[in-house]
Write a structure and sequence with these properties.
The chain is 26% helix and 38% strand. The chain is an alpha+beta fold. The longest helix is centred in the first third of the chain and has 28 residues, at 2-29.
């Protein structure tokens, strides 16, 4: 009986010493990873209290737009890739092969996914607000729109990328990073 207790104690001591050693070893091996947007610029909007990361080399411009005959009813923040010389105006941006933008509804009819025949693909959170991600359907994965509401303003975040498959994949990754890093500050 005495030998059995000694073996049990030995096992307990081995286990007790092993757990802290494993924790120390694990802590020493896992280096913190750098944020995917660490080298991105941060855009701070001047009209609405939000900020967002912008991919390296991409440019940002804001413009107030009209919709359905209602003047100044929406606000666009356009994000365009390097080398793009387009002015920041929705009709021109819509024709670019790759672009991202945020449409803030100030007093227009709300953005309606059904009107644009969009299909809900995912529920997500943007700056602590519930949001829904939509696409044009099963065959179109190069155009996504996420919709969320901040302080009674509907925000529609959109990416369209009709470039090479590799380029489109990168643009969609940028879009996801932009959504993840978007912060509405409620100021």
């Amino acid at each position: 009986m005495r030998t059995h207790l000694s073996n049990s104690r030995k096992r307990l001591v081995v286990v007790a010493l092993s757990v802290p050693l494993l924790l120390i070893a694990a802590c020493g091996q896992a280096a913190p990873s750098r944020s995917a947007t660490a080298d991105w610029a941060v855009y701070h909007d001047t009209r609405f209290p939000f900020q967002m990361p912008v991919p390296p080399g991409w440019r940002v411009g804001a413009v107030i737009g009209d919709s359905g005959g209602v003047d100044n009813c929406e606000y666009f923040v356009d994000v365009v890739p390097p080398g793009t010389d387009a002015p920041y105006a929705m009709p021109i941006i819509m024709r670019l092969p790759e672009m991202m933008w945020i449409r803030v509804n100030m007093k227009c009819a709300p953005f309606s996914p059904e009107d644009d025949h969009l299909v809900s693909v995912e529920r997500l959170t943007i700056s602590e607000a519930p949001a829904v991600l939509y696409n044009q359907g099963q065959d179109d994965h190069n155009s996504l729109t996420a919709v969320a509401v901040f302080d009674n303003h509907q925000f529609a975040f959109t990416v369209g990328s009709y470039v090479s498959a590799k380029g489109a994949q990168q643009d969609l990754k940028y879009f996801r990073e932009m959504l993840t890093g978007f912060q509405y500050t409620h100021q």
